[in-house]
Amino acid sequence: MDKCIRVGFLGCGNVGSGVWRLLNGFSPEIAHRTGLRFEVKRILVRDLHKPRDIAFPEGLLTDRVEDVLDDEEISIVLEFLGGEEPAYRWVLAALQRGKTVVTANKVAFALHWHELQKAAKQSGAGLYYEAAVCAAIPIIHSLEESLQANRISRIYGIVNGTTNYILSRMSREGSSYEAVLEEAQRLGLAEPDPASDVEGLDAAYKLSILASLAFHGRVPFENVYVEGITRVQSEDIRCGQELGYTLKLLAIAKREGLDVETRVHPTFIRNDHPLANVSGAFNAVFLTGHACGEMMFMGRGAGDLPTASAIVSDLVRAASAQKHMYPTFENELYPTVALRNNTDWRCAFYVRMLALDEPGVLSRIAQTFANHGVSISAMQQKGETSNGRATVVFITHIASEKDMQKAAQEIDPAIATVECLLRVEKT
Ligand code: HSE
Predict the structure, then answer these.
(1) What is the pLDDT of residues 55-90, one digit of tens each?
(2) Chain centroid, CA 317 distance in Å
(3) Which of 99, 206, 248, 254 is catalytic?
(4) Whose CA is nearest to atom 7 of ligand 1?
(5) How remote is the CA of residue 190 from the centroid of ligand 1, in Å?
């Protein structure tokens, strides 16, 4: 005899509808494999009268959150509202009532992990969030369980599909950021308000979650340096390609001893790096552990069914768990993880300048770099000289971010102007 678990939904947009479809279509197989049967008892929606693709049974939809939170038969709440509020308040209320929560909400989770986890522990409820990061890719479960025997030192993630789609098309076609974004919005591939994606915030929330799990130390969202793709020019993508590099919006987390750095910004990586071939809306996470070595996960990081895949898997895990597990963050009790200040990191750089095409100019630029400990690894002068100035592109060796910024500021504008400065991971 199958065990029946009653669940409630908070929200039923794209992801919620995907979960409904997956649960309905796939229930017999889940029941066969696990002995668990899930019954969706209530679904909270904002507007009861909105036309919907799915014909929900009479009485299932409600616009009163209490119908989900106060229903004692509902033991697991699935949250698909997105955003910080009211999702955080309602998820907290569900946990305080002892209801296990499965969420796809990276914002509420990244910002309020401590409070949510505390409430879950106090009531004995479970808190599951695989879908919050890279949707279908099982990266949360892998970090929490499968990679336990590793000290993870590095994560490089392409964790935002919208920006990866835009950069991939800019790379392939040489089109401008504005033109690709406009078309992506027309095709429904980018949000009407794309700010959170293109400004890197979506990736930063996800990185805060990944880095916290990977390093077993809480890395708050505020500690993630964020720079989006809105100022990326196709000229730089092309110049980088000619020097052997591909531009990606990377979510980077590194740990050296106790020092942890986390940053999201457009980054050049070698053309032959596995991440360089992750194109379109795909997501990927490349990590290094001291025992597992290098490893890459790739898959769909958004969409109704890919997200539902993670939600329903979490639901099965939650319903089958003998005891819910919660990650422990050592630095919430005592400082075992030193969070580096923003810009306190080292990497290589790509610098594009418009420089006077005259004797001695390059040596003066190289001297300014050298004054700040920045060493040049490759240089290319490109195209025709215009108004006496030529485009010159440098790739540096690894240097400190602060030194590079100082060197760039000290370039004498009478001989050269810095048109673009991007980071390079030569890994
Ligand atoms: N907006 C995200 C992306 C998906 O473009 O990848 C949800 O996190």
Answers:
(1) 999 999 999 999 999 999 999 999 999 999 999 999
(2) 23
(3) 206
(4) 302
(5) 9
